[in-house]
Amino acid sequence: RLSCIRNNVWLASCGVLSSGLAVLSSFGLMLFCGVPFVVTVANAPFLILGVGVDDMFIMIASWEQSSRKKEKSSVESLLAETYAEAALSVTITTLTDVLAFFIGTWTAFPSVRSFCLYTGTAFVFCYVYTMTFFGAVLVLNHKREQGNRHWLTCMRVDVGRDQAENSCLYNACCIGSCSRQPSQPEGEHPMSTFFKKYYGPFVTNKWIKLLMVLLYGAYLGGSVYGCTQIREGIDLRNLANDDSYVIPYYDDDDKYFSTYGPRVMVVITESVDYWNESVRLGIESCVQNLE
Questions:
Q1: Considering only CA atoms, which of 105, 42, 47, 40 is closest in space to residue 237?
Q2: Is 149 in a helix, a strand, or coil?
Q3: Residue 134 main-chain phi, psi, to 5 deg
Q4: What is the C-alpha to C-alpha distance for residues 146 and 28, in angstroms, rounded to an integer?
Q5: Which 3 state secondary structure label does DSSP give 155?
Q6: Does this model's pTM top 0.70?
Q7: Sequential pLDDT tens for the chain (291 residues)
Q8: In a 3-state reduction of DSSP, which class is residue 156?
Q9: Which of these, 179, 161, 129, 181, lies nearest to 19 by C-alpha position?
Q10: How far is it, in rounded angstroms, from Cα 23 to Cα 102?
Q11: What is the pLDDT at residue 171?
């Protein structure tokens, strides 16, 4: 927002900080428990940041809707209304993510298992920090706005009749507009207005609804066809570093030996007397029979 009072820069920054705290907490706990850190775990912070910022947007939107409905309500009731609106969706999305990654710990690949452990634990911490730390930040930001304090300096900003007497530089830095007219209360967010007045009526039109059903049918048919084309398997190159010796090994193996089929190995699990000539002849005869 242009308004220096209604601006939520610090609120957004604390939402990103909440995701960062979740990453630090999960990494610290897993390292303390002795879970090995592999290179694939380095991708986890980006996933946590995406989910954490999404939860932040849901919390802020619910807070603003609650504050718009109950302008003179107490902070406790506003926060309770916000959690009633946002906590359910945040909980469901976090629960599905945590289950998905913890189920991934059953894999036989140690690198994938470590990645799922780190990421699933980070989702749990992200949920905890969103419900506690970020909720407190919402309250502090609300008190700052109620006190007409600047978003950067937290100094009280005089708005009202005296705005016309201030200089243009003062109004631009402290209020957010060079206009010398008294500031008006900020209305509904433009994005909310777009979805309410334009997108909603457009989607609920009967012809548009029919088109949506047809498009979804085509999408569903394409998805079913795509499921029939999926091949099972995993490329082991994706589980190693780019500079690992494993990459050229698998490249050469596919290039020179893929036409020969799978390699067959014979393992003798018993303890035999290899010094005995008759035993050695028996082993060689077995190998010849297998060939």
A1: 40
A2: strand
A3: -70, -30
A4: 38
A5: coil
A6: no
A7: 677 777 888 889 999 999 999 999 999 999 999 998 888 899 899 999 999 999 999 999 898 888 877 766 788 888 999 999 899 999 999 999 999 999 999 988 888 899 999 999 999 999 999 999 999 999 999 888 888 887 777 778 766 545 555 556 655 565 555 544 444 455 666 787 888 889 999 999 999 999 999 999 999 999 999 999 888 777 777 777 777 888 899 889 888 888 887 777 888 888 899 999 999 999 999 989 988
A8: strand
A9: 129
A10: 16
A11: 54
Please answer whether residues 138 and 79 qualify as being in contact, where contact means their C-beta atoms are separated by less than 8 angstroms: yes
CA separation for the pair 111, 40 (Å, rounded): 7
Place of tokens 């706990």: 29
Q: Which residue has the tokens 């289950």?
A: 99
**DSSP collapsed to 3 states, 241-280:** CCCCCHHHHHHHHHHHHHHHCCCCCCCCCCCCCCCCHHHH
Reading phi first (left if > 0) and then psi (alpha if -120 to 50, else beta), residue 160 is in: left
Neighbours of 158 (CB within 10 A): 13
In the numeric block, which tokens belong to residue 50? 């995406």
Q: What type of residue sits at position 142?
A: H
**199 by DSSP, 3-state: which?**
helix
The closest alpha carbon to 121, from 27, 232, 257, 196, belongs to 27
266 exposure class (CB count in 10 Å sphere: 0-12, 13-18, 19+) = exposed
C-alpha to C-alpha distance for 209 and 75, rounded to whole angstroms: 41
From residue 237, give the alpha-carbon distance in Å to each of 108, 141, 244, 247.
16, 48, 9, 6
Is 129 within 8 Å of 18 (Cβ atoms)?
yes
Half-sphere exposure at residue 165, Cβ-oriented, CA atoms within 13 angstroms: 5
Q: How far apart are CA 119 and CA 108, in angstroms?
A: 17
